[in-house]
Amino acid sequence: MNKWATGIFTSIDEGLGAGLDSVKELGVSTVHLRAPRSELRSKEKTAEIKEQFAESEIEISVVFLGFPDDDYSTTDVVKQTVGLVPKDRRERRLAETLDISGFAHGLGVDAIGMHLGFVPQDPTDPDFSAVVEVTRKVCDRCLEFGQHFHLETGQETASELLTFIDAVDRKNIAVNFDPANMILYGAGEPLAALDLVGRHVRSVHCKDAAKKRQAGQPWYEDAPLGEGDVDIRGFLLKLHDLGYEGPLTIEREYSPNQVGDIKKALQLLEDLRKEIRG
Ligand code: MG
Q1: Distance (Å, whole) CA 40 – CA 253
Q2: Which pLDDT does position 14 carry in this prediction?
Q3: What is the predicted pLDDT for the residue at 18?
Q4: How many other CB atoms sit within 10 Å of the CB of residue 137?
Q5: 37-80: per-residue pLDDT in tens?
Q6: What confidence score (pLDDT) does residue 255 get?
Q7: Which candidate, 142, 141, 63, 172, places its Cα nearest to that of 107?
Q8: Residues 6 or more apart from 245 whose CB is under 8 A from it?
Q9: In whole angstroms, what is the distance from residue 201 CA to residue 194 CA?
Q10: 268/235 Cα distance (integer angstroms)
Q11: For range 249-264, the mean pLDDT
């Protein structure tokens, strides 16, 4: 895979993403794949999906998890419903996460990633330790498959994330850095956050977001790359300084013109890559 190959976040069944046909149309060579629902994760289906991507010469670099009952309507609801943090869903979702690690392994993918949810900020909170424990279970399963477990940024500040990563204390825990999420969740300035967690970054989402919300605009709505408040050039310069050479994966979630926006984003990243890396 080329250094800084541009890719997109996609799904093959439902939910957010550009879809396999769009991936082909856009001509990208690498994707983050949202894990499909369980019926599509059987051994047979996994082999089919692997074949489809291989035929199209598209590499899957990370399999991302979400759950059908995740609810992003408000950040308070996110706290109650998203990731492995909500107590009432934790065990069931742990089982599904371990299953998806196996699915990713079946596809030959060496990383899974997710929003873990809002980890308690206070490391002495008993639930902090409980979330550390469940995260270790995921890391340990991933390690059996030679995988890393990537935590999506945004639901905590960079220093809280570092505290959590240190507490988990597993060599295969890593960060998927999403600069727009830092803005959307109000978790700090993206580039300053990258300075802190940079050494853990194994994948990124090239996503943008505007601090200023339009009337009636949902809190989670992102912006076309380069049109929000993420300094994309500064972001890539920092990744370059960090020695990051993995894919630049565009994530464009809420847009009436998703494919058009992604095309523009691909061009922007191409231009910046030429400028920065020559
Ligand atoms: Mg993201």
Answers
A1: 22
A2: 64
A3: 60
A4: 13
A5: 999 999 999 999 999 999 999 999 999 999 999 999 999 999 99
A6: 86
A7: 63
A8: 3, 4
A9: 8
A10: 13
A11: 91
Q: What is residue 51's predicted lDDT score, i.e. its pLDDT?
A: 93
CA of residue 32 to ligand 1 center, whole Å: 10
Q: In angstroms, what is the span from residue 18 Cα to ligand 1's centroid?
A: 14
Please indicate, yes or no, whether the overall pTM of this predicted structure exceeds 0.85: yes
Q: Separation of 204 CA from ligand 1 center, angstroms?
A: 8
Taking ligand 1, which is a single-atom ion, which protein residues have CB atoms under 5 Å away?
Answer: 178, 205, 251
d(CA 278, CA 271): 10
Residue 175 belongs to what H/E stretch? Answer: strand 173-177
Give the confidence band of 23 by pLDDT, cuts at 50, 70, 90.
confident
Using CA atoms, how far residue 136 sits from 92, 124, 216, 227, in Å, is 16, 17, 40, 38
Ligand 1 mean position, distance from CA 199 (Å): 18
